[in-house]
Specification:
Strand order of the largest sheet: 1-13-12-11-6-7-8
Distance between the termini: 30 Å
Largest sheet: 7 strands, mixed
Radius of gyration: 29 Å
Structural class: alpha+beta
Shape: elongated
Number of helices: 9
Length: 363
Amino acid sequence: MSSILMPVLADIYTQPVQLADFYVSNITDRKFTAALVKHLNITAPLGSFQHLKRVRGDKSKDGQLQILLCPCHHVSKMTKHNGDFVTTSAGHRDFVMIPRDHDDSVRESEQINIMMTSLLKSSDIPSTTLSKPYLVKVPICCPATRAQYEESSFYWPVTFHEDKRIAQMLSGTFFSKEEIQRIKNYLLEAESLGKKAAEKGQKHYGIVVVDPDTNTIIAKGHDMCRGSNPLHHAVMVGLDLVARSQGGGMWCLEDPDMYFRPSEEKSNVCELTSCESSNGQMASEKSGPYLCTGYDIFLNMEPCPMCSMALVHSRVNRVFYSTPHVDGGLGSKYKVHMQAGLNHHFDVFRWTGEVLSDIRAHH
């Protein structure tokens, strides 16, 4: 990966290709290929292996077609046995049979005959159309990136629909040079705030909140958790400063390095207006975007899980950080921003360019 801004993606984009054993046979008579595919789709549907193509061309000398029959673990259900089967090596698509004891070979042969009878039942397709089944390795999951696709295709042909946005992130072409320089400057600002916090006896964490549409800083601050409130992590402080910029906020932190930009446009303020509910009581109605909607967050350190959830709840647009943390909530230990079931998700990028600080803080 050439990008100096590494996306922190869901595991499906970064996990290695996982393999499973699958029974295949050579098709001895090509004219039955279509009929075999149609019949097997009924008697042995691919199920969770829909990303696999049913037939592939064998690059061996005889050039026979190979067809997927069923996963290895399905055979015991067909044969009502839990026996072992001959396993072949699929490396470079060369299949080598592993020697077996005589009794095992007899049992294997019986079970394969039962499997083939089950697969071809109620069919006019001659049993001689398929060779003796053998095992190959196939990818378990549908590839999510081009690298996974290329590796998966080494084992068996697969379908692949590339996500262009993810591809740009992984290739390092998602941001322009100008954008990268701006991001770096804001990360350096967060690092500077972290150093100021450390000089005051606080933890080395800084935060900068930016409106990317106008390229203006909405709020900036640093860690204060070693003071009167242990919840004053840099992220929590920064989010409260954003709330103060919108006429809210819970904490009045007096510090010359804290900053928030009062909103000048009514549309950027979450106003509370009174309205009467159906039961006659006064209720509050919120108007305008919520807290950090559309804002980018810049941190010199990966946030903890608590702060990561606070970023979810505040509806941030993107988060950039320059230093990972062993217990971090946005990539190192957890990926809070990718958790299924949450009502908001956002992009996270980790700076992997030149080191912006030699200090490594700990929660």
